[in-house]
Every structure is written in structure tokens, then in C-alpha cells.
Design a protein that fits this description.
The structure is a single chain. This protein is an alpha+beta fold. It has 2 domains: about 80 residues, no CATH class; about 150 residues, YojJ-like (1 (3-Layer(aba) Sandwich). It is built from 10 helices and 7 strands. The protein has a 7-stranded mixed beta sheet, with helices on both faces.
């Protein structure tokens, strides 16, 4: 024990802190993309490789080592766009990120629902995506970055028919309206109603490509719809919209 304490210096403490900070930022980076879900598979392969090594299974160890090397190369190739995007934005993120409080989330939702209620009554179309775990950076970059505090009035002004940013969708993350006039992918689901317009198909499409919650206000009927995981719920009252959003965004997933 004394030998260990003598060899443990202040340099080791600094190295541990730096290593912790690097690993933490890697987790933050992966959390904003689908690559986060590959982390479990990589951890499983590492644990299995170490277990086979300590259990003296040379054949399994060698085969898993070859597979692991091939797997890492395959991950880099498949997730090249996400890795490039993550490296670009990595330096812009804070090391320590605190999840917003439940009260802050509910206040943000009230502002969003209030805006949707007004837009619905005036039959003004709107398309609003609320980010959850999977990053929406590539969709944000297709629009105009705002990074503004959310308010009902701001959302109404953005989707006013003669406003320069009313086309496309808005992206909300935390308590910020990150961007507007963003391009969302159209759903290719053949089971969707033929009467649905481009705005609804874009909302469903984004919910298929990510775990975002997407609100759609029809400019023809004023009805409010909500797209989650490729499923569209239509003709929602503002109170029902708030209840569903609160359940989706404030409860542990």
C-alpha cells in the first residue's frame, strides 16, 4: 500500500482528470448522434475480448480481435458524416452540461403550445421539431440559425405567412429555438393518408429519421398534429398537445 501511495503523484491526478474530461466529452458527442447506440456494442466486444483473454481461449480471442478491428474500420466508414459533423461542433459544446429542470421544460412547452393554439385559430401553417436524444445538426444547418429564447410571440412571428423564415421547419432544443426555415426529410410511408400535404409528410419523415417530437399545424384546416416515431396523431386540442408533450419530454425515457 505504501509503495502504491509513493508512486501516485499529482501528475497522476492531472492525467486522470484529463482522461475523465476527454471520455466525458466523447460521451456528449456520441449522445447527439445515432452512433451513441453503437457504444454498447463496442463495450460488449471489449469486455468479451478481455474475458476470452483471461480465460485463455486463444482461438476465440484471436477471432474476436480480428472482428473487432474490422468492426472499428466499418464504423468509421458508415458514420463518416456524423464523425465529421461531431468534430466540427465538438469545440463549441460546454464540457459540463446540466439537464434543464422539469419546471423549465414545462414553461417552454407552454410557450410552444400557446403559439400553436394561436396559429391553429388563425389557420397559419407551422412545423416545429423538438429535439430529444438524437442530434438534428444536419437539419439545423439547412436553415437559418437563431439560437433565441423561446416565446409564443417569437414562434408566431416566424410562421407568419409573409415572414422570411416561415417556410420549412423550426428546431427547438432545451429552452432555445435553435433554427428556422430548416429542411426536413419527407416520409416515404405509403400508408399515410393521400390528403396529407408536404408539411405533414416532412414532420413524419423527421420523426422517422430521429427521436424528435414534431408538431404540425395545418394551414388549410388549422388542425394540430403530432408526429412521434413515424406515427401521426391528428386533430389535437392545445390541452391534449401539452399533456402528450409533457409526458414525452419530462418523464424518464
Amino acid at each position: 500500500m505504501e509503495i502504491i501511495l509513493k508512486t501516485f503523484s499529482w501528475k497522476n491526478i492531472i492525467e486522470i482528470i484529463i482522461l475523465w474530461a476527454v471520455i466525458y466529452r466523447i460521451f456528449l458527442f456520441l449522445k447527439g448522434s445515432k452512433a451513441f447506440y453503437l457504444l454498447r456494442g463496442i463495450i460488449f466486444l471489449v469486455v468479451a475480448l478481455l474475458a476470452f483473454h483471461f480465460l485463455s481461449f486463444p482461438v476465440l480471442t484471436r477471432l474476436l480481435a480480428y472482428f473487432f478491428a474490422f468492426f472499428l474500420i466499418l464504423v468509421v466508414i458508415i458514420f463518416q458524416p456524423e464523425l465529421r459533423e461531431g468534430l466540427i461542433h465538438l469545440g463549441k459544446r460546454h464540457i459540463f452540461y446540466i439537464e434543464p429542470k422539469r419546471e423549465e421544460v414545462e414553461n417552454t412547452l407552454r410557450e410552444i403550445v400557446s403559439a400553436c393554439g394561436v396559429l391553429s385559430r388563425k389557420k397559419i401553417g407551422a412545423l416545429i421539431a423538438i429535439k430529444r436524444e438524437i442530434g438534428l445538426n444536419k437539419f439545423v444547418e439547412s436553415g437559418v440559425v437563431l439560437n433565441a429564447d423561446i416565446s409564443s410571440e417569437l414562434i408566431q412571428n416566424i410562421f407568419y405567412p409573409f415572414a422570411p423564415l416561415h417556410d420549412g421547419g423550426a428546431v427547438i432544443e432545451g429552452g432555445k429555438l435553435i433554427a428556422s426555415s430548416c429542411l426536413f426529410p419527407l416520409s416515404e410511408n405509403q400508408t399515410l393518408e393521400k390528403t396529407l400535404g408536404m408539411r405533414h409528410r416532412a414532420g413524419v419523415g423527421l420523426s422517422e429519421h430521429s427521436d424528435a417530437v414534431v408538431i404540425v399545424v395545418s394551414e388549410e384546416t388549422g388542425s394540430i398534429s403530432l408526429a412521434i416515431n413515424g406515427q401521426l396523431t391528428r386533430d389535437l386540442a392545445p390541452n391534449d398537445l401539452f399533456t402528450i408533450l409533457k409526458g414525452q419530454l419530462t418523464n424518464p425515457r
